[in-house]
Amino acid sequence: MEIRPETIHDHPAVARVNLRAFGGMGEPMLVALLRQRQSYDPDLSLVAEQDGNIVGHALFTRCTIRLMGEDVPAAYLAPIGVDPACQRQGVGTALMQEGHRIAAAKGCHVCFLLGHTSYYPRFGYHTGAFGAAEMNVAVSALAAPEAPLEARPPEEHDLSTLCAFCRSEHADVDFSLHPENTLFDWLSPDPRVYARVYVRDGAPVGYARYRRSAKTRVICFLAADAAAAQAMAVQLAEHAPEITLPMHPRSKSAPVFGLQGATLDAWDAGMACALQPGALDAYFAALSAGRVPGAVVWPPVFDPL
Fold it and tell me: Are 281 and 274 within 8 A, CB to CB?
């Protein structure tokens, strides 16, 4: 068996492996979308080839995360799949080990994923590294804006402003992902998911992404200031009495809404592995001392999943 980076000629075979491994089109579509990102690195999209056939695939995507107030080079693993006929033969282990080696050589300090809690710890992953944050906000407690904000889809000229909003909102949130300066990180491939930029006096003041069928349960929420945050929440709620925001206790906008309705669900399946000593070791030590775990807001390419 050979573990090597994929080539463009491998794409159909990789899609077939992921289709068979996961039993649906979600993961093949995810891989196709992740290949369009600026951060896609073919050296980290690995295939396992056996007797001329591709029997496994793992995609590591490079990114930058916030950890203990610092920007840390990292990678996330999604997906990793092995043809069912070749499982339990060390294919996944070989893909993981080679992916970790290459990612570390490229300067990544951390790798993280959502996965099976009895499988990944054998490769050095710690469970409960991050989760999901939610805040239930009573709309009646919010100040209604004098005039509604304009809401429109994101455009190219918004990107630098939106990236700045994200960095500001999540500056103190562990495992927050820095978005890319492309529309791929601000528009969803899922037509059921809306992305909106909120504008006040001609200037963007916020961004939200939400499912059309669940507008009051927001996927991503960024605001320039307290007034914008409250106005956006009121508009998103429409006539509902409550709205649920993905608001970590350390988010910049959290004090705007108070912390009484905030919850943090630290997932056992949210795991991380240190590829180089330092940042992640300090983070887990801080968790043991009582630090609130971080939360990942995944890029829009994961919305269809």
Answer: yes
pTM for the complete prediction?
0.94
Cβ-proximal residues to 182 (8 Å cutoff; 6+ apart), any chain: 37, 38, 159
Distance from C-alpha of 255 to C-alpha of 234, rounded to nearest angstrom: 16
Q: CA separation (Å) from 183 to 38, 157, 212, 257? A: 11, 10, 19, 29
Instruction: State whether 123 and 157 are in the same domain.
Output: no
What domain count does the chain have? Answer: 2
Q: Which helix (H) or strand (E) holds 170?
A: none
The pLDDT of 102-123, averaged and rounded, is: 97
Question: Tell me, what DSSP letter sits at residue 154?
Answer: -
What pLDDT shows up at residue 304?
A: 87
DSSP 259-289: STTEEEEE-TTEEEEESSSSHHHHHHHHHHT
CB of 58 closer than 8 Å to CB of 99: yes
Q: What angle do CA 75, 81, 84 make, to 5 degrees?
A: 165
Domain interval for residue 34 = 2-131+266-293
186/252 same-domain check? yes
Starting at the earlier edge strand, list the strands of the sheet with 70-82: 2-5, 45-50, 53-67, 70-82, 110-114, 270-274
Strand partners, 82: 56
Residue 20 has pLDDT above 70, yes or no: yes
What confidence category does residue 305 fall into, taking pLDDT thresholds of 50, 70 and 90?
confident
By the 8 A CB rule, do 264 and 287 touch? no
Query: What pLDDT does 90 receive?
Result: 96
Distance of CA 10 to the CA centre of its chain: 26
Q: Are 169 and 218 in contact (CB under 8 A)?
A: no
